[in-house]
Amino acid sequence: MNLQFDIIEILKVTMVLFAVIDVIGSIPIIISLKQKTGGINASKASVVSFGIMIVFLFVGQTILDIIGISIGDFAIAGSILLFIVAFEMILGVQIAKDAMPATASIIPLAFPLIAGTGTLTTLLSIRAEYNIISIITAIFFNVIIVYVVLRNLDRIEKILGAGGIAIIKKVFGIILLALAIKLFRKYTGL
User: Fold this and answer.
1) From CA 186, how far away is CA 180, in angstroms rounded?
2) pTM, 2 dp
């Protein structure tokens, strides 16, 4: 296990996770959740999503081994999922629709919005490429960003406006699409 502290690597992983988590692009969804449920607990959502990501980072591979799926298979499936998420972000369509629970801080905010299947797939995929310290640090930085966004949701909405949020969502959609293609090419040999 490589335990080096590499600033450039941490920045790379942080940006990849930031694009996959897409908390800025999710602001419209989070605002809708807040209106429907009456409030969002930023601390609870952040801690739970951090826990989910860390646990999956360490035991996700074991779970895959138990059910007989290789990291390559999971990465290819994840790249297709990331492609779909990017497609949703870029074109503004919604493919997946989930029912709304009474509280939004854990479900659907922490999981699957923040620590969703795209994030978990990405964690397993980048684990083969980057050292564990960089990944944990990147997860931590992203959870801090998520917390700050959730705590300042109203302010951010006013600053960015509808147009700004739409532009950011499209930009991160393109980044996510490129990541999906990179993962797919890496594990299929294309």
Assistant:
1) 10
2) 0.74
